[in-house]
Each structure stands twice: as C-alpha cells, then as structure tokens.
Amino acid sequence: xxxxxxxxxxxxxxxxxxxxxxxxxxxxxxxxxxxxxxxxxxxxxxxxxxxxxxxxxxxxxxxxxxxxxxxxxxxxxxxxxxxxxxxxxxxxxxxxxxxxxxxxxxxxxxxxxxxxxxxxxxxxxxxxxxxxxxxxxxxxxxxxxxxxxxxxxxxxxxxxxxxxxxxxxxxxxxxxxxxxxxxxxxxxxxxxxxxxxxxxxxxxxxxxxxxxxxxxxxxxxxxxxxxxxxxxxxxxxxxxxxxxxxxxxxxxxxxxxxxxxxxxxxxxxxxxxxxxxxxxxxxxxxxxxxxxxxxxxxxxxxxxxxxxxxxxxxxxxxxxxxxxxxxxxxxxxxxxx
Length: 337
Ligand SMILES: *Cc1c(COP(=O)(O)O)cnc(C)c1O
Hints:
337 residues; six-stranded mixed β-sheet; binds pyridoxal-5'-phosphate
C-alpha cells in the first residue's frame, strides 16, 4: 500500500502523539487506556478532518479549484478545518450549515467553530435540516459554476474514498508507533459520524492484517445504518487503494447506544465524560462527538467489555472548539465562592 501515489497537501502536524492515560485508567479500574491525539493535528486547533483534507484539498488544487464548498451542522468541526485549509491554500470557501438542533442559543450559532469559520474568511449560509445536504451543495456549486467559477465540493465530514485515505494513513501511523515500541494493543475505539474515519481505519487495519478490533461509537444514525455507511465507504476506499474486498461486513462494528436524544444534543453520560477527561487527564472533549464516543468507551469499560490487562486505544477525533458553542450545557455555579 503506497499512499504517496495519491496527491496530498502536507499541512497536518503528524504523527500525532500516542499517550497513556494513567489517572483515567486508575479511576476506571479496567484495561490500560491509551489515547491517540488526533485532536492535535494542527490546523485551526486540529481534529480528525485535517487528515482527510490533506488528500481532498490536494485533489481540489490539482483540479484548479478557486473555491471549495462543503456542508455540516452549525458547530461543524469539518467546516472549520476546511475553512482553515482554504485560507492556507489561498482558495475561497463557502459553507452550507444545516440546522440540525434548532437551537437559538447565541454561542451555539456564532461562537466556537462558527467564529473560526468566519475568522478564516469563509462565507456561511444556514438552511433547515434536510435529508441530503451533499445534494444541496452540488446545487449551490452548479450555480457558481454557471457563473464561471471553478468549484470543488467536499461532502459532509470529508467522507468519501479520497478523504478516507487520511484514516488509512492513520492506521499505518498508529501501527508504526506501537510496532516500533514493542507495544501490543487489543482494541481501538472512536466516535463515528459521517463514516470516513472508521472506513479509512478499518481499510488500513485490514490491509495490514493488524487483527485489532475497531469499534465506532455512533453519534447520529442507528446501528444498521451506521455500519452500512461505514462498510460501503470502506469497500470503495479499498478499491481506490487497489485491495478490493479486504474489508468484510463483520469487520465493521458500531455501537449506537450513546446517541441520546439526537445529533448535537448533549447527553448526561457525555457531559460526565467531558468532566472526567478534563479533570483527570487535562484533555478536552466535545459534546457532539468525542464525548459521546468517550461515554460509550467508559460505559463499556464499567460493564467489563474490555478486560483488565488489555490495552485499549481511544482515538481522540478533536472538536473541543465546539465547547464554546455549548457552554449552556454546563452548570458550574458551585465552582464560585
Ligand atoms: C467529524 C467528527 C467525528 C466523526 O468522524 P467521521 O469521519 O465523520 O465519522 C468524530 N469526532 C469529531 C470531533 C468530529 O468532528
């Protein structure tokens, strides 16, 4: 597998650190917990979309695009990282934001990721939630193309076979880190949404025959739908890489028990996970993705799903900027004296 055959714009801070979480491990009394710091990929505070955008934005540049268009929820980390890449590469960026939560909280609508979208020079528009926002941005792009603009569209979350290459590369990177330090790992866990992260990881892991189970913790879709999305994208990614059929349906496992009321709506267990990671390990999670992933991870540890003596890696996909759009989810009145 030779990823250098694909165009890539090297802007991420890689490799991301792999760190042991001693205090969280002790608190939970289960497996040894490690964290892969993909919240530290660099671009505009980092996050998992940066690895995907290295490949997507290189393709955009190669096609001569002057402008990229993408879509996401109001507090989309993907939108913010795309805006940052466009700024760095001297391209225009337009973002169609989907109102998935109906929140009219001022910070949710203007602070956090939205503030950074605008700081990087992107333009935004908001539309009511709908079934197919990737189709919406194609329509927006076609209008601009009719005006003679060269536009490249990036699907929500950067999740297509090109973007997923970033997580094939992450699988190689993580395996390289553990192999070179003589460390064995037994499981990898992360938050899964638009499917590109899990699809890329499972394709890379299977292509290397790593034999490490991967578990995605869902943040939106029900289990069957989530697994189908990941599997379909993994199959296309494997084809693009020249190893079709390497991912089997049973390799794709998602647990969607921690979504709560819905996408972007904080859960009690997610807020507990945010406080535990912040207070025990000084690591910031976000309420939309990484906190729900961590909540599932913590609950599964408490239920004995991972055994003592095993080594489990939680892939931190980033998102902490969204905390500033979700301050209303926390009550810290007891911290004041
Ligand atoms: C987008 C995102 C995810 C989910 O990754 P997908 O590739 O969309 O499945 C997880 N965590 C954070 C912080 C994200 O922004």
